[in-house]
Structure formats: structure tokens, C-alpha cells
TrEMBL record:
GO MF term list: oxidoreductase activity
Keyword Nucleotide-binding assigned: no
InterPro entries: AKR, AKR_Detox_Biosynth, NAD(P)_OxRdtase_dom_sf, NADP_OxRdtase_dom
Phylogenetic placement of the source organism: Eukaryota, Metazoa, Spiralia, Lophotrochozoa, Mollusca
Protein name: NADP-dependent oxidoreductase domain-containing protein
Family statement drawn from the similarity comment of this UniProt entry: Belongs to the aldo/keto reductase family. Aldo/keto reductase 2 subfamily.
Organism listed in the record: Pinctada imbricata
Cited Pfam families: Aldo_ket_red
Amino acid sequence: FDNQNQLEGEKAFEILNRFAEVGGNFIDTSNNYSYGKSEEIVGNWLSSQKRDRFVIATKCGVPSDMTNVNSGGLSRKNIVQTVEGSLKRLQTDYVDLLQTHIWDVATPIEETLRTLDDLVRSGKVRYIGCSNVCGWQLQKILCLSKSLGLTDFVSLQQQYNLLTRSSELEEIQVCRNEGLGLIPFSALKNGLLTGKYKRDKTPEASQGRVGFMLGSGSFMLDSWSTYSNDEKFWNIQDKLTSIAGKHSKTVAQVSLRWLLQKEIVPSVIIGVTSLKQLEENVEAAIGWELTEGEVGNYKGNQ
């Protein structure tokens, strides 16, 4: 919320209300999303809801104040300060899931793990997870937590979609072996897996995140150039379009359904800017499935 000044106030509440109406209950945010504004919006909305109905997840580790060199990292000081700030902005006594947002090379991992364990024991955090780590880092976290008798991690939030699948090589294998759930973010790869982009046509600024970033001259210039010139990317688009037609669904719904049919995935992170997008994404989870053959077209090393 509040990213690129897209969702604030009543519009954000409208989307959250509809999300709750259709049965949604998992809301993921972070202390650094729009420098805390996202948590404030969620908190203002949550204050009028039944708190126990929702699973609220947030994160720590990435700086929320770029003028303060101590506002980032996974030290005891920063984690505790971050959680206190998040609880205040979210207007709640606890968060259901606290996730480390980064791997902190400057802080002893034991310090991070003991701090997270203390927060769980205090009741301010119910469960802990991590995000944006590689295989050996994830395994080290889990082994140290176990050997020190500390709170177990329950989830890994990682970029995972039909175009970004490097996590299949190590991280997903660790999650399977250790019993963690995988929560994919960037499930539609900044809109590249929605079917809205066409061959030999550069996205316009109004065409979602890719168009916006291309217009602002960001890193997506290189990313779009890489994908737009990759025949494998367009072959995936063609296959998704074909499968979507057979099910009378959209390409975005097929892309999300591919993730949802993986046993290791308890939930998928979606980001919407309108009720229309929300309705489309929610329909990916309700009342239909891809066939084994269709999932198998992109099976890889699951």
C-alpha cells in the first residue's frame, strides 16, 4: 500500500474489505514498505476488524529510515525497535508471523535467533520465518535454531514464479526436508506473467509495474530487454495463453494456480491496485485446478 502513491485511504480499505469478504485472511507487509506507511494503512483498517480472523505478517532487517544508519540489520537492538514500531503502526499487540527480510552479514546469527526467540516467548510474535536467503543460509538458520533449542522457523518467503525458479535447486528442497512452507512473492513477475505484454511492443507507462519502471528508467529496462528478446519467454506466454483458454481463465490466473497447486505453498503473495485485479487473482484459488499434464509442462525440480 502507498507504493508509487497508488493505494491510500478509502481505495486501500475497499480492497481490504473485499479481500476479507471473499475469505482472504493472510496479509503480508513490512516495516520498510513505503517507509512504514503500508503498515499504517493495514493497522488503520485492522482496528475495525476482528483481529483473530487475520494472519498478519511483517518483516524486519531492511532500513525504514534512510537517514539512520542503525535502522537496518538483524541486531537485537534493531529487531526489537522494528517490532515495537510495527506493532504501533499495525495497532495490534502481536504479529502472527515475523520474517527476517535479509541475510545480515554484520550480525552474529546467534544474536538474531535469540532475539526472535525472545519475541516469541514475550507474546509479541507468534511465529517466525525468513526471506531472501540462499540454501546454505536457510539450512544454517534451521540447524542453529534446533541446536540452541530456540523457536523453529515455519516459513520462507522467496521470489518464485514460472520465470524465476532458481529456488527449486536448493531452498525448496530444504523447505521440504525441514517442514517449512514456501510463500512466493512476485508471483506474476511484475506483470510479465499476466499476458498483457506482447511481442515486439514495448510496454507503455500505464501498463502496470513494468511500464511504470520502464518510463522511470529503472533496472526494469535491462530486465524487459532480456525477456522481450528471449524466445523461451514468449513460448511460455503462448503455452499459458493456450491453457488459460481451455479453462476459460486468464493468464494471470493460470500462473497463480501453478503455484497454488504445490503442496509446499500455503499462500501466495499478490499485489493489486484495483478491485478488478483482486477479483481476478482470487479466482485463481477457487473452484478449479490445472491438470497434472498442465502442471507438468512447467514441472521442473519441484
